[in-house]
Specification:
369 residues, alpha+beta, Gyrase A, domain 2, six-stranded antiparallel beta barrel, four-stranded antiparallel β-sheet, 23% helix
Length: 369
């Protein structure tokens, strides 16, 4: 019998060791941790007009719409004074788009259209040709097309029904790129810019690149950048070098952080959070107020009048909290188990975490949203 028990225990331990060895390492691709310096998107903005609305456009007396529409008609060969325009089927909009790196002429972009005036809805409208400019004032794309609104607005004489936001819309593929996107491709050196600067992560990225491409290829400049030297075999294959570097996996160093959303009572605890031994007492007062008004009516021939007499019942409950100890917690699972053992609600948990941080028992940064 003892041999059987020993055999079972040995088998269980062997399975646990194999399972632990087979568990995947917590690693991310460099592509998710950093971007290439100089390879970035650019924001484009333009002022345009949406026409074809069913009386849901800007106010007929809006000077912004009148003058813009008159200028557009003049470019098309029709001269009309702004004061003569009294249409409510036109809306002034702000048009925005994102120009990705390496964009080429003829490539289409999605466009976001947002009302700038008093328009009630952009449903059914069409955006007319709108130049999209960058921060340098140059026109990089031209937007035009029917707008797509993810909702509706129905009005009647006595009310209205609305679904979602109808004064902002999209034009899928509505912008056409007119010039090559301004992208600076690195030559002698590639600089990786970390999305979350950290000295440990930057060092690990440099070590991973050195192991893959040879010692001395990469060096961390600081917590936010890693420089990769373009060696002779890669000088004519920069794109292949970038693809090779981005595919490497690195275990990033994640800071210990607790995020608290006071508005919704949401608490998110990061995996690196640690908890030292502490004692906690929590509780509060519960106040219940109940109104039960009564009617006081005088007797017959009394000459009085009927009155409403208020009757208020107030009950106060003191939920006195006892001092409860919590043990050291070395992982986020242990932290969750220790806090759940208190039976605290999310709102109470927010105050407890903040107090633990102030007392030095919580090894993490507490970020309140």
């Amino acid at each position: 019998m003892s041999r059987l028990v020993s055999t079972i225990v040995t088998a269980v331990v062997s399975v646990a060791v194999v399972a632990g060895a087979a568990s995947p390492a917590r690693a991310d691709r460099i592509k998710e941790l950093a971007s290439i310096e100089g390879v970035r998107s650019n924001q484009l903005t333009g002022f345009g007009l949406v026409v074809g609305l069913a009386g849901t456009g800007d106010d007929a007396s809006s000077p912004m719409v009148r003058e813009s529409l008159a200028k557009m008609l003049k470019r098309l060969g029709a001269t009309i004074e702004p004061a003569q325009i009294k249409s409510k089927n036109v809306a002034a909009v702000l048009v925005t788009a994102e120009l990705p790196p390496f964009a080429r002429p003829g490539q289409s972009l999605d466009v976001l259209v947002s009302s700038m005036g008093s328009a009630k809805s952009l449903a059914g409208g069409t955006l007319i040709a709108t130049p999209l400019k960058g921060a340098d004032g140059r026109t990089w794309a031209l937007a035009q097309g029917p707008v797509a609104v993810g909702g509706f607005l129905v009005e009647g004489g006595a009310g209205a029904q609305r679904k979602n936001h109808v004064t902002a819309a999209r034009v899928p593929g509505g912008a056409m790129v007119e010039q090559d996107a301004p992208t600076m491709m690195p030559r002698g050196e590639i600089v990786l810019v970390l999305r979350e600067p950290d000295f440990t992560t930057a060092t690990r990225i440099a070590d991973a690149i050195d192991r893959a491409l040879g010692p001395g290829t990469a060096r961390p400049r600081d917590a936010g950048a890693v420089a990769v030297t373009v060696t002779r075999p890669w000088r004519d294959r920069i794109s292949s070098l970038v693809a090779t570097v981005e595919a490497l996996e690195v275990d990033p160093d994640v800071p210990a952080r607790v995020v608290i959303d006071e508005k919704t009572g949401t608490v998110v605890i990061g995996g690196a959070v640690r908890l030292r031994a502490a004692a906690i007492a929590y509780g509060g007062l519960t106040v219940s107020i109940e109104e039960a008004p009564e009617v006081s009516q005088p007797g017959p021939l009394a000459g009085g009048k009927t009155e409403v007499v208020p009757r208020t019942s107030i009950e106060i409950t003191d939920n006195g909290g006892e001092l409860r100890p919590i043990a050291d917690a070395a992982s986020v699972t242990d932290v969750a188990a220790a806090l759940n053992a208190l039976g605290a609600k999310p709102r109470d948990l927010i105050a407890i975490l903040q107090a633990l941080r102030a007392a030095g028992a919580l090894r993490a940064d507490v970020e309140v949203m």
